[in-house]
Structures are given as structure tokens and as C-alpha cells.
Request: fold
Amino acid sequence: MTTTVRDIREQGLGRTLRRDAWWMAPLATAVVLGAFGIYATWVAWIDRQYQWGPYLSPFYSPFFEPSWWPLSPAFLILWVPLGFRATCYYYRKAYYRAFFMDPPACAVGEARHAYKGETALFVLQNVHRFFLYLAILLVFILAYDVVLATRWPVAGVAPAGEAALGPREFGIGVGTVVMAVNVVLLGIYTFSCHSLRHLVGGRTDCYSCTTFGRTRYRLWRGVTALNEQHMLWAWTSLFSVGLTDVYIRLCAAGVITDLRLL
Amino acid sequence: MAMRRFEVFRGTREAGALQEYGVECDEGMVVLDAMHRLQADQAPDMAVRWNCKAGKCGSCSAEINGSPRLMCMTRLSDYPEDRPITVTPMRAFPLVRDLVTDVSWNYEMSRRIPPFQPRAPDNPDGTWRMYQYEVERPQEFRKCIECFLCQDVCHVLRTHGKHAEFIGPAFLVRAAAYELHPLDMADRTGYLKDEGGIGYCNITKCCTEVCPEDIRITDNAIIPLKERVVDAHYDPIARLLGRLFAR
Reply:
């Protein structure tokens, strides 16, 4: 059959002359992000087994439970990381391709629709930097959680997971290490943000003619070094958050026993 | 010598089709070599645009197996021998004939960008003083060879045909080369937001993937420009800070 001008114009979803497995990356992204979204919703909804001994799940930190709030306290927190990741320049690429298929991959056809890009509803993506401010605060709170995870009750941890009242002593468990790795990865992801890169020095053109120009340039260079692997940090920090919650949840459910290292 | 099969687009905008050819190919040949041999031996009327054969003039842009690439930088050995290699023209621009498209729209877009406006000279002899570390950012964009592969792959132009509303990644790179320059004084954020249509870019990074000069178009040009547009139009705090601290 002859391929005509009309055939090569890629009219229609998935139409392309590409012969590689272009669909693999959006499919994998959709599966992983979709699975994480379902898991996060379930974790937030069930409102239990988020704490064991000195460990607190990142899905519930900072923990506060006002009497007027009818739902799980996780919902008071999760809008911050959700908003930060949903407006992140990397994740935008990932979900525009995987979920909106706009486009599904480079040089691959899309379903027919009136394209507005980020000029209409998605102009709201421009709030990313405000979520960044909150996300930085959250990183410091999670770092404080790691400090708290080294404060073990002298009287031990009850089978149900509650830390006993009374004096505390220094200690490190596998969970402490898991939480520390998580906060490091979250920190790198947050501090590799494109908006932060702009705010610390990217908005400056002439460093030599600006107040603190050298400092701004050095900060910009530092964030740029992290930013070059922003995708890597986006994924590793997503996995680390999920795995940290899974670890604490399994400890709280009594499925695994936390190993005390120190 | 080995016979390789090619499916090459032949025709005009009104009527055309992929035609299959067999071409004797030597080791080390690139797609442009094969097109030249095809032109010499079998299809003397085939239109192919080319110039330097060294990946520096940006003339031989086309789509090879559906992906925008420079024909002179694409080795035949990168493709399996048992399947034909498809060579088609760029899709984002009007077809002239065979593998040649009319890219004049790009030059029109280039002319519309507010030009470079240096500050007053620093010295009485009319010269300026700046440092290498300050010009490194815009220097990356000087590598652009104007092959327009980024324009071709951008779905805003390629699929949605927003040529009237969006200047495309190549000219966002051009705008960034001016906007990030330490001597430049012009503010292009209004132009980029409205006429330039930067909001149409949904940062799917296809432009970066196809750039033969490895310019990090999205991360180093488009996103910094988007952030400047946010500063000027969507962030009241940044506007306040901008007034307190000069650039």
C-alpha cells in the first residue's frame, strides 16, 4: 500500500513513522506515577500505622490533628508535596506525555483537540515557586524527624508501636537510616528545582554589576549542578518517600522487626 | 558494498508518496551520502537541500525513520540492514518538493524578537567590561546552527500548527541569548508572554532531544525565560524584590 502525504502527517493518536519502542517511556511513567498516586491516596485515607517507636511516616509529617478536621491528618500535609511535584518542570513533561499524551512521545501523533498549552487552565503551573517555598520548609521538618528518630524511649517500644513515656536515649535503627536517606534525596530533589535555580541567581544577567553578584553566581552554579540530574532526583525521591512509608508501616503492622544498629 | 533499501518521500504538498529504492552503500556512509548516490544514479530530479556535510550548516534536516535528524550526521550503520530506512521531509514547514521544505517562516520569527540592546559603554573608548563566567550562559546558545529540527519536532508547531501564536524553541533560544546576556538591557518578558507565546510550550523536551548541538534548550533557555515571565507577570513578591535589588 502506498504511503501518501496525508499518511506521514501523523494525524491521530500514536501515528508515527518511528520504529523504536517510543511507547515504553510514557507507559512506564503512567504505571509508576499511577501506582504511586493510588498508594499515596490509600495511605492518606486509612489514617493508621504511620508511626512506630520514634519513626513517623513522611506522609504524616508534620503531624497535627485539629479537632475540627474530619479527615485523615495526612490530607492537611500532602497538598504541599503534591502541588510541588505536580507543578515541577520535570513532572510536567512526564505527565503531559504519559497521561495527557500531549504528545505521547516526540514526533508521534496526538488525538485531535484544541491545544492551549500552559496559556489557559495550566497557566496555574506558574505557582511552582510558591510550592517550592513550602517544600523547603517540609524538608527541614523531615530532617527534624530524623533527629527525633534517634531519640529512643529507654523503656522500649510497645508491640503496637507506641513509644513508651519517660526518658529517651540516643539510638539508631534501620528505620532511622531509611528516614535519613529519604530526607537527603528529598532535599536534593527540592534544591535542584528549576525555580530555585532561577531565584538564587538565574534571574541575574550581570553578576559583576550586582549586589552579592559572586555569591549569586556560586549559588546558581551549585543549584545548576544538582539541576542537571533533576529527573533522577525526582524519581529517586519519589521512591524513597514511598519506601520509607512502607518500612514504617510494616514495622507498625508487626510484619517486620526494626533492627537496632546503635 | 552492500545494498540498502530506502523509502524516500517523493512529491509535493498536493501529491506525493514514499518510494522504495535500493542503493549500493559503502562502510561509513551517512544518510546524506546515500541520498547523493540515489540522486546521481537513479533519481536526478530528487530535491535535497545540503551544504557543509559536517553538521554545521543545518541545511540537510529531515526525518529519518520518523525522527528529526541531520542527514549528514546519521550513519547508516545505526539502522538494521534488514529493514528499509525511511527518509521524509520536515513536517512543521510547508513542503516545496521531495525532501525540501520552505523554512522562511523561521527567519520572519527571528526578525520579530526585540533586538540586543547593550547598556551604555563602560569606558570612554566605547567598550564594555564583562567576565567570561557571565557570558557562559548565553554562549551555549551561540552553538545553534539553525537546522530547525527543534522547530520541526515541537508538537505546538508540528501537530497543532500554532505558527501564528508561538515562535518555537529555536527562537526562544535566540531570545534567551539576548535576554541572559550581561550587557543586554531590554525586557522581553512582555513579548515572550504575548507575541512569543511561551505559554504554549508545555516543556516536553523534544526540542532538547533532537538538538544536534546538544544545547539544553528546555532547561537552559525556555525554563529560565518562563521563570522571567513569572517574575514579571505572575509573582508579586518577585516584582517587589526586583525593584529593591537591581539585576
User: Anything to note?
Assistant: The mean pLDDT of chain B is 95. The first helix of chain B runs from residue 31 to 41.
